[in-house]
Every structure is written in structure tokens, then in C-alpha cells.
Amino acid sequence: MSRDLSTRTEFSSTSPPGAAGEVELLARIARGDRSAFERLYRVYLPRLTRFLQQVTRQPQAIEEVINDTMLVVWHKASTYNGVSKVSTWIFAIAYRKGLKLLSRFDDPVAGEEDGTLSTDDLPEGAVMQRQLREALSAAMTQVSPEQRAVIELTYYHGCAYREIAEIMGCPVDTVKTRMFHARRRLRQLLSERREDLP
Amino acid sequence: MSGQVLDLTRSPHQAAFELLPWLVNGTLDDVERVQVEQHLQTCAACRRERDWLTQLAGACASGEIVVDADRALARFVERLRPDEAPGSVREGGARAKPSGLLGWLLGPRAGWLKFAAAMQLGVIVALGWALLVREPAYRTLGAVPASERANGNVIVVFDPATPEGEVRRILRDAGARVVDGPTATRGYVLDVAGTPQIRAIALRRLRAEPAVTLAEPLTSERTP
Description:
The complex is a heterodimer.
Chain A: H1 18-30, H2 34-56, H3 62-76, H4 86-102, H5 124-140, H6 145-155, H7 161-168, H8 172-193
Chain B: H1 12-24, H2 30-42, H3 44-61, H4 69-80, H5 100-106, H6 111-133, H7 146-149, E1 154-158, H8 164-174, E2 176-180, E3 187-192, H9 196-208, E4 212-217
Antiparallel strand pairs in B: 1-3, 1-4, 2-3
Helix pairs in contact in B: 1-2, 1-3, 2-3, 8-9
């Protein structure tokens, strides 16, 4: 279930750099190595896209936030001190940028649901999973951005709660509390849509 | 002595219940994992919650993101560096850190960043130069061209707290009009038309005003 944030990638044409590789990439970026920056950009683009889509629900502004984030990475690579993982450091920057983006909007934009595709040819388990996913996508709009960030970092990016606390710049108890309220709210919302949830 | 800090505010059930999401995603440390798993053996409510969270995790974990990295990267670079040639940044090799803006500009950073900074610096210098060569809004009397000074014959300084309306009244009563200022010392150059005697009267009126801290002629005329 757990997937290491620092090694997850979907599209890089080369193998994922891994945690140690990312530290090395950052060191090269600090020396002005543009190819290292491009590598890191490619690795983090899908992760940050997914994370910021889930947290901000502002798809039209995601690229701007990512580029702002990666600009900070480019400028501040030399300040990375190695205490946290590179992924934690970058996601923390992205999270702050995402919250800053949200402060510009009054009303969040609900995420798009792909409910128009047919489920006729899918096995029963896959249909249920798909229905749950669609219900979850709608339910996630009903929880706060901070709660969405905790859910997303836990279940998509496979973060430990201490790492999430670092990313969000809050105590670990705050992370647990946000998760507690998020899962209670999601359970309530999903139960309303699906009577067969346990 | 153990390094673990006991949280006396939480019951074992509450502590385990809170940690279930990270048991499900496999990121608890060994001590926490064992504690939660032991609790699960005796708590049906937590087992149901674990099963629900496992479903939730499965739903959250799906939905891969497909992005066009080449296009996004191109836009990122284009946004900041419209004219940098590819590969202008050398790879590898430790370099001494530059100091100061000039050092940074001449340092090892990418050319597009240096270009952007140089452009900014250029714009700042150009704006500064434009401000210098055009008529300055604030300048010392010595900076006023002689042709302009010919129109002014009195320098006056008002108390900074004087309302604008009061300043206008004082000037009107003195028969003066502002032709320059404020100067670096907050002075205004006034033109008082008429004979030297009229200007002497105007000076006396100005000096009599509590709001006027200084009123002196700019010509060699002797004032009583």
C-alpha cells in the first residue's frame, strides 16, 4: 500500500532517481546544473500535479503553482539541508504555494468526475471500486483543503504522518486531528451515496 | 529509559484509532505498528475502521496523472528565459559561491536567470536615468537651472504640519505664487511680482505667519 514519495514516478523516461538520487540532483541544481533541474522537474511534475489538483481543486491554476514551486527549488536548492527528504521539502513548498493560490479564490472548483464512461464491461469489484472512486472525488470537495492534503499525502503519496506534519508545517497531532475529521466526514458522505459501505 | 513519550491524554483505543490510516499505508514505525496491531486483535470497531480505510486508500490510490512534461517544461523555461540557448549551463563541478549581485550575475547560475536579473537591473538603471534626466520633482535649489530661478525671488519653508489650505491662504495674502519646490529642505521658491518694496512687504507678511519657519529673498535685495 505504501509508496515512497521520493521514488514514485509514472512517466520519466529514465529510472526514478530514488531518495539518494534526488539529494544528488538537488546538489547539482545548487551548482547550476540545468539538466539536473529538468530531471527533477519531470519527476515531480505528475506528483505535484496530482497533489495540487486534489488540494486546491483549481485545475486551471495548477501549472502556475507548480512552476512557482519549481522556481523556488531552482533558486533555493543550495539551502536544502538534508534534514528532511527532498520530496518532503518540495511538497512543503508546493503546499504553501497551493494554499496561497486558494487564498485568491472565494469558491473552490469541484473536481471533474468521469462518470460518463460505461461500466458495463468491468467486473463487479472494479465497478464498485470505480463507483467508490467517483463518490470519493465528489466527497473530497466537501472537506477542507488541509484535510484533503492529509488524505492525499497519506493514501496517494504514501507519507508517514510525521512527514505530512513537516510538509504542512504543523504538529503531528494536527495531522492526526485533520485525518480524523476527514475520514469521519468522508465516511458520512460516502455512506450517503453508497449504502453498502462497511 | 525509553525515548518514547507516553501520551496520557489518549486511551489505547483512541491512540490506535488515530494511527489506523498510517497502519493501512504501511508507514508506522515498528513500535507503533505492533501496538496498533495488538489493539486490533481485541477491538472490532477498529477492525471495521481499518477495513473501511483500506477501501478508502484503494480509491485514493487510483487515478494516475498523465501530464505532458515536455510541454510543461518548455513553458516553464519560456516564461523566464525567452532567449537563452539550450545547454548554456555547464554541468557538475563545485564552484565558489558568488557574493553580491555582480558576483551572482557573473557566477555559475543558469544563463537565463542571469539574463533575467540583468534585464531587471537594466530596467532599473534605465528608469533611474530617465528620472534623473527629466525634470526632477524634488531637488535642491542649487539644482534649479538659472533660467527657472529667474522666475523665483523668495524662498519659504512652511511648518510640515501646515494644512494645504492654510498654505494657499498665506501665499495669497503675500501675493506670491509657487514656481518651484519642494526642495530637499522642504522649501518652496516663490515669485512675488512687483517692485522691491512690494517684495519686502510680502516677506514681512510671510515671516509674520506662525506656519512659516523661514522666508528669505533669493535676490540681493536688502530687506528691512
